[in-house]
């Protein structure tokens, strides 16, 4: 195989440095090459190269090409990009001798079967055993009497930034292309590629057709399933970590689907302004803006305004992480959730149910200005509740938002229902006016707002003192 330029430079530099440690002498290239050969530097480089080539030969047979079958109606594959690019074929990896194959859900699309081509060019029609759009994984099965080459999973939790990895796949139809690179980052989320994201970032070259292919460590273990690239970028690819993949695959094989724990809350990040209001540090925990009636959180006593800081002792600092931790638990499992309420920490035991819908994450713009509120409000009537799709019968309705106002900057709009002012409930314009009048100029106002029956918190600045 051909080693990437970056990797070659690294290997050569290691060998050269072993001959001539810094500072590098002002000698000719010929002198360096001579010293290189005389002292065994070249042998070292060849040995390192041999490790990579042997690894590539060992893992390639387990990698397959995945193609749509004629008339399957599936959405053809391209590694999901930002934005997505044109369709193509995909890749996969055999994970056992019985013929189970892991690939991306977006490679399979809506198909119930796909064509799979092995490294020896033999072709099979594979059945789709199960799919999980939330992590972009799918499991296929081919039937054959022969024993198939397979790859084993490694521990993605042990992956370190800077370690070497090998990506194998079929970019642009070039079977079992091998690229070498390093892990550029771990724990990447907020990529808007899947509901549950915890990507490994790598600079090993990934192109259209690599989707569903494996990312190997230097032991030949699968530590990731390549799933996406950033369009027009070089050396930025993403892989689903193997530990997440193993959890999903186990359920797909057992049930044909994935079931996940459900807490029953709406959540949002803790911004600097919200942190001040709730007495925590910026980015500490996740703010609960809504608790769904009769769901696990409500039964356990979690309230709107609670800051969730830990799940079973694991620190929570983003909505994505909280969603991922809860989703990784089985329905019926009991989890200990630490919350900060009115400045005090407490641990609540929550019996999870099965997820039915998304946990709602409110995305509200951060504060950008300090001006008057800039809203008109009125009491909520039955007609207005119906017009703005509100089930609540109490609250203060925003009927107008002034252009350029702080309310507009914070994302408020006509039809939003104000439920609380500075943690106190308001059910009429008079209560709202009274609550706002107690706020001194220069202070902030914490509102709890309902929009089409989904709640979020927002902080408004009233201007300088």
Structural summary, described in words:
By secondary structure, the protein is of the alpha+beta class. It has four domains: 5-60, no CATH class; 61-258, Thrombin, subunit H; 261-361, Pdz3 Domain; 375-461, Roll (Pdz3 Domain). Helix content is 22%, strand content 32%. It has eleven helices and 27 strands. The chain has helices spanning 5-19, 29-38, 41-59, 105-108, 242-255, 272-278, 296-300, 319-327, 382-387, 406-409, 429-437; strands at residues 63-68, 90-94, 100-103, 113-117, 123-132, 137-141, 164-169, 177-188, 199-202, 214-216, 222-229, 237-241, 261-262, 265-269, 286-291, 307-311, 314-315, 334-341, 344-351, 353-354, 360-361, 375-379, 396-401, 417-421, 424-425, 444-451, 454-461. The strands form five sheets. Strands 14, 15, 16, 17, 18, 19 and 21 form a seven-stranded mixed sheet that branches. Strands 1-2-3-6-5-4 form a six-stranded antiparallel beta barrel. Strand 4 and strand 5 form a beta hairpin. Helix 1 runs antiparallel to helix 3 (41-59). The longest helix is centred in the N-terminal third of the chain and has 19 residues, at 41-59. Residues 1-22, 72-88 and 357-371 have low confidence and may be disordered.
Question: What key attributes describe this structure?
Answer:
465 residues; 4 domains; 11 helices; 27 strands; 22% helix
């Amino acid at each position: 195989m051909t080693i990437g330029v970056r990797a070659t430079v690294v290997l050569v530099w290691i060998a050269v440095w072993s001959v001539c440690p810094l500072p590098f002498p002002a000698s000719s290239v010929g002198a360096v090459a001579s010293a290189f050969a005389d002292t065994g530097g070249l042998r070292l480089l060849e040995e390192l190269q041999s490790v990579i080539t042997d690894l590539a030969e060992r893992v390639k047979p387990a990698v397959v090409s995945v193609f749509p079958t004629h008339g399957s109606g599936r959405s053809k594959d391209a590694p999901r990009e930002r934005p997505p690019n044109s369709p193509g074929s995909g890749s996969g990896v055999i994970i056992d001798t019985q013929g189970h194959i892991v690939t991306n859900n977006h490679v399979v699309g809506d198909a119930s079967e796909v064509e799979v081509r092995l490294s020896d060019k033999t072709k099979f029609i594979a059945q789709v055993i199960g799919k999980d759009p939330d992590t972009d994984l799918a499991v296929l099965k081919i039937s054959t009497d022969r024993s198939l080459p397979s790859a084993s999973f490694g521990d993605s939790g042990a992956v370190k930034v800077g370690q070497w990895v090998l990506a194998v796949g079929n970019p642009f139809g070039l079977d079992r292309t091998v690229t070498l690179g390093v892990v550029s980052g771990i724990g990447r989320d907020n990529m808007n590629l899947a509901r549950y994201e915890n990507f490994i970032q790598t600079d090993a070259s990934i192109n259209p057709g690599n989707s569903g292919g494996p990312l190997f460590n230097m032991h030949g273990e699968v530590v990731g399933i390549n799933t996406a690239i950033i369009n027009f970028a070089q050396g930025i690819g993403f892989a689903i970590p193997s530990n997440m993949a193993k959890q999903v695959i186990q359920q797909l094989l057992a049930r044909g689907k994935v079931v996940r724990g459900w807490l029953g809350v709406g959540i949002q990040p803790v911004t600097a302004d919200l942190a001040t209001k709730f007495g925590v540090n910026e980015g500490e925990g996740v703010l609960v803006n809504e608790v769904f009636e009769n769901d696990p959180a409500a039964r356990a006593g979690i309230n709107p305004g609670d800051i969730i800081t830990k799940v079973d002792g694991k620190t929570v600092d983003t909505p994505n992480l909280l969603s991922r931790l809860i989703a990784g638990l089985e329905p019926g499992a009991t989890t200990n959730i630490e919350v900060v309420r009115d400045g005090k920490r407490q641990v609540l035991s929550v019996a999870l149910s099965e997820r039915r819908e998304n946990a709602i994450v409110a995305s509200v713009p951060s504060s950008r200005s300090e001006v008057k509120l800039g809203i008109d409000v009125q009491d909520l009537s039955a007609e207005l509740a119906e017009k703005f799709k509100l089930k609540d019968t109490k609250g203060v309705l925003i009927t107008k938002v002034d252009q350029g106002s702080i309310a507009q900057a914070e994302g408020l709009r006509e039809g939003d229902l104000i439920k609380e002012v500075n943690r106190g409930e308001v059910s009429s314009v008079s209560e709202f006016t009274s609550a706002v009048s107690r706020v001194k100029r220069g202070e902030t106002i914490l509102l709890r707002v309902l929009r089409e029956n989904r709640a979020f918190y927002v902080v408004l600045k009233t201007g300088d003192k």
